[in-house]
Amino acid sequence: MDQVHHRALDALQSFIALADSGSASSPRYAANIITNATSSPHTYVFAELLERPAIQALRSPDTPAELQGYLTLLEIFAWGTWQDYQNTPNLPPLSDEQTRKLRLLTLLSLSSTIKPLTYDSLMTALSLSAPSELESLVTAAIYSSLITARLSPATTPPTVNVTSVAPLRDVKPASLPSMISTLSAWESRCGSVISDIEAEIAKIRADSAQRRSKENARAVALDKTLEKWIAQSGEQGQGGSQGSQGGLGSKKMGWKPRDLGAAIRERGFFGGGSNKREFDDDGYFEEGPNDFDPHGSGMDIDEGAGARSGTRHSKRFLGKKT
């Protein structure tokens, strides 16, 4: 649709050049420019031509009466409709090309304002007497890329379903204040919506920061509690096992909570420590040097395998051979 608008602007440039030439000082010459511009099959916008001094000179009281209506005719082609032409007196008669062009421009305006577009409403607005004439006009508009539409003559009532309209109508100067008012109101609403969105974003960020602060404080408190519990457990282990190499608290101060599971598996917190004696590579048990085995074999051997049941026999630890 934008390409159609550019083509219409390009088609108007030759008529603008004629209006800016020195020959356009004659009112009749300006009227001929208007007639040719409105009859051309490729011109659909006329605002730039309307602004030319030679065209505006037709408003002068010195303009002959039979030529004064050409400026009004050009304004109708720019932003008016077929009904405006029918209701305005003292306008020049239209050729077949101008009649078809004005009906096509009116179809553009009606397609943007009336929903649904029934055959009856369009035929009345365009002064058409038969559905075939309307269908021919709509088909021409579709092939000229003025509208995107589909004819539905079999529906009740028959309609023309328009999905898009080319931006080929000029803006009437009298409608500018209302358009500015509408755009200003829309801008105000957009500003209010943006302010609400920014306030909501700020609230979400504040809530997120507060939530992170609480989580960090909770994690710090948990770390301190676990470290204190580990230290207390180590002190209790020192009091119950004097021959050990030091309690958990004296060796593991400064542990992080992630080391708690490993500490529990290593030291056997639950159950008061391991129920099996530990020894080092030199053959000594952790309880002291009295259980040293000079053989250093690193094995536990039951003495008296055939002893009475119910009696626990002592074990002898065979150390490494030296």
UniProtKB/TrEMBL annotation:
GO cellular component: COP9 signalosome
InterPro entries with a match to the protein in the record: COPS7/eIF3m (IPR045237), PCI_dom (IPR000717)
Keyword terms: Signalosome
Bias (Basic and acidic residues): 256-268
Compositional bias ranges of the Gly residues kind: 236-249
Domain PCI: 4-165
Cited Pfam families: CSN7_HB_subdom, PCI
Domain of life: Eukaryota
Bias (Acidic residues): 280-290
Region (Disordered): 232-322
Record field: compositional bias (Basic residues): 310-322
Membership in a protein family: Belongs to the CSN7/EIF3M family. CSN7 subfamily.
Quaternary assembly: Component of the COP9 signalosome (CSN) complex.
The name this protein goes by in its record: COP9 signalosome complex subunit 7
Lineage: Eukaryota, Fungi, Dikarya, Ascomycota, Pezizomycotina
